[in-house]
Specification:
single chain; 314 residues; alpha+beta; Glucose Permease (Domain IIA); eight-stranded antiparallel sheet; three-stranded antiparallel sheet; 20% helix; binds zinc ion
Length: 314
Amino acid sequence: MSKRSSVCQTLLPVGLATALMGVFLLALLTLPVQAQAIPPLSPPYWDADELAELQGEFGPATPRWELLRPAVITYTVQPGDNDWAIARRFGLDVDTLRFSNEWMRRNPDLIHPGQQVIILPVKGAYYTVKAGDTLAEIARRYGVPAADIAEFPLNNVGPAGQLRVGQKLIIPNGRLDYAERIPAPGPARGYPLAWPLRGVVTQGYHSRHRALDIASVYGARVYASHSGRVAYARFSPDGWLGFRVVIVHDNGLTTAYSHLSGIFVVEGQTVARGQAIGQVGSTGNSTGPHVHFEVYDDGARVNPLGYLPPSASE
Ligand SMILES: [Zn+2]
């Protein structure tokens, strides 16, 4: 199937540079903006010259973002697609896909043919304005200057930064740090081990799964269950467990944390109980963002629930 048939324009119709800038200037004078006043072009509607021109029109004198397309488009997932392939096809990164498609953030592995993926014109994030939001607060949350959101023409932000509930904002270079919003598990005083993260146990310990699966948000921090020495911190060679950290503790226990998206420690390093060692991911054979958490007692795999407090918040 051709790229042309799988890409369709949606959400933010866009015109030629001149028409767009004209409407944008008009928008500054007559809010609220009528988005449909911008005539849509039929795809494929961007070439290198046009994009270069638009980049100049879109951005400040020193561009702080690279314009890849003049519009938000949707892409229909094709057989064999995955998030990396889709991101690469459109010049984006996987984070941009996750920050503009809520369902991908929750479970990036459930991509299947026919699903609609929002494709932003720049790397960044896509945000729907909620009651009480301010431009400054949104900018702070995504770690970008408020001007970058206000000045992005497709956003139609009012001259004094006015937003409308339900308005979609493109946030160039915007990134959310989920770790900031997810509290660490409690220290579990009096227990041999602390929970490695707050999450939902989606699979318990049994004869064919001698571990706990603890699901959380992609990118959430994972913490050492107890102090010890990092014995292993790399991509598991069998490919099954993905990025994996193993910590040998001084109390005779060993803990292992698998399917991570990122690792913050190196082999040989000592870690404190509760120290961040990596991030929740879905690497290896995994069906969604979670940690496959194993506990070894004197070398034998045991049920982690026997060593942890009853709740991840303790
Ligand atoms: Zn598992």
